[in-house]
TrEMBL record, chains A, B:
Gene3D superfamilies with a match to the protein in the record: Chorismate lyase-like, Winged helix-like DNA-binding domain superfamily/Winged helix DNA-binding domain
Protein name, per record: GntR family transcriptional regulator
Domain of life according to the entry: Bacteria
CDD domains, alphabetized: WHTH_GntR (cd07377)
Keyword Membrane: no
Lineage per the UniProt record: Bacteria, Bacillati, Actinomycetota, Actinomycetes, Kitasatosporales
DNA sequence: GATGCCAGCTTGTATGAACAAGTGGCCCTC
DNA sequence: GAGGGCCACTTGTTCATACAAGCTGGCATC
């Protein structure tokens, strides 16, 4: 499926692991074995297994054979950056409604995040999102000025804004940065999500970039407690997650 | 500093980026340039820049020069898995107190997480952790039976359990899996963290493995809202973070 | 039977070469 | 001036080889 050789091999290994041909905790064949079996060089096989290691499927340490750590496949970048794509892959029915859409000057923080001039205009969008009919997430997004026209052209019940502007305006997300913490529901949050005020919400703020490193949007998503869980796999070789002190501590 | 050539080059590039020699948004020299400059082959340089890409410092796409995306260095695995190491690196004064330590049969979930027999014994530890004198996190950990003796031998005010058992019993964490969500404070949480009952807490449950894939501990950490923020960087090439539906949705 | 050592296997690091694929800027045309 | 096409440059993929470093299991020893 993957167009390059090492992606093919990686996909085949993923399948073999998921199907149980390489059970959880078992040791994978050596690189030389895999290279011979696939008629590829050891370097190519190493690229394939490096992919699986970075996905957290297998563990690797010098001298010892690689070990199977998990069986499920990791989500794609698209599914993490797009609520709609994720929900669809989960088999949930997703719907969204834009409640507000206004062009206004950027605050200082927004300008800094989007790498725009302070006081430049941005597009603010308030959206309520449902899973299987239940309100699950409130989304407050600020779009950079250069994508605003594409977003303003979309209908109120657009399911996936990122998908739509990728298709119509060729604005494709490539990098993302995510800040995750917990906050108390404000009165607007509480009304929209149908929870009590000050009840716990999981907040995911994220910044999305194009392939060239240009900021697209800065958004504040608040999930009803219990509706989603974030999952990170890390190792001594790769630690994609960071922990930062919040205002209560730095203060 | 790094013992291998590509780690040296990566560290030098990190320094250059952090110091502003390669400003944010600027384009890095080509692989050939770097290879010539460092007297290394292109393959070695590629390993170095691949490291920085995986750390989210630079972006990469075929045909175009690499772009500087951030300047700060990413935390190490140790700092993510050890609250004490992280706090120390932040320059905060950290203290901990073990409030409870009991050996009891594992629940079904605990046995499944630790890959132990249901009903086998585990060590339950309840700990309260402070940053700069303020209570910030409640930690409820279940240790696998084979590490229990090492943990039981530690004093009540041990600052870092993971550090201690790594040094004394040669139990070294190598992989970790993290589940992050928001919950309401229970009465015990509220009393210990000095917040109101049902106020929002950021929960980080995590499972720690040895290099050989053996489970060490399964823990439930609850942070006072506002005290910490988790941060993840991802790209189309690597998405280390997943989102999962919680019980409210799968219901 | 327990312990320690060693040989062979396996992964990690590094080189050099070649071709494929995508980008960006230049130049030419309309 | 706008648009399109061409080309040099850059990153991505793959190969073959060599050596370094760490692990495992079996053998010899005590």
């Amino acid at each position: 499926m993957g167009r390059s050789r090492y992606e093919e091999i990686a996909e085949a290994l993923r399948q073999a692991i998921r199907s149980g041909a390489h059970p959880l905790g078992s040791r994978l064949p050596s690189e030389s074995d895999l290279a011979a079996r696939w008629g590829a060089s050891r370097g190519t096989v190493r690229q394939a297994v490096a992919l699986l290691v970075s996905e957290g499927l297998i563990g690797s340490r010098q001298g010892a054979r690689r070990v199977v750590l998990r069986q499920e496949r990791r989500q794609s970048f698209q599914q993490l950056n797009s609520f709609a794509q994720w929900a669809r892959a989960m088999g949930c029915e997703v719907s969204s409604r834009i409640l507000e859409r206004t062009v206004r000057p950027a605050t200082d923080e927004e300008a800094a995040r989007l790498d725009a001039e302070p006081g430049g205009e941005v597009l603010y969008v308030l959206r309520l999102r449902h899973l299987d009919g239940e309100p699950v997430m409130v989304e407050r997004t600020v779009y950079a000025e250069w994508v605003a026209p594409a977003v303003l052209a979309l209908p109120e019940d657009c399911v996936s804004i990122m998908d739509s502007i990728a298709e119509r305006a060729d604005v494709v997300a490539h990098y993302g940065e995510h800040l995750i913490d917990a906050v108390a529901a404000g009165s607007e949050d509480a009304r929209l999500l149908r929870v009590r005020r000050a009840s716990p919400l999981l907040r995911q703020r994220h910044l999305t970039y194009t392939a060239a490193g240009r900021a697209i949007e800065w958004t504040d998503d608040r999930y009803r407690a219990g509706s989603v869980v974030f999952n990170v796999m890390n190792s001594a070789a790769a630690a994609p997650l960071e922990r930062h002190a919040g205002p209560d501590v730095t203060g």
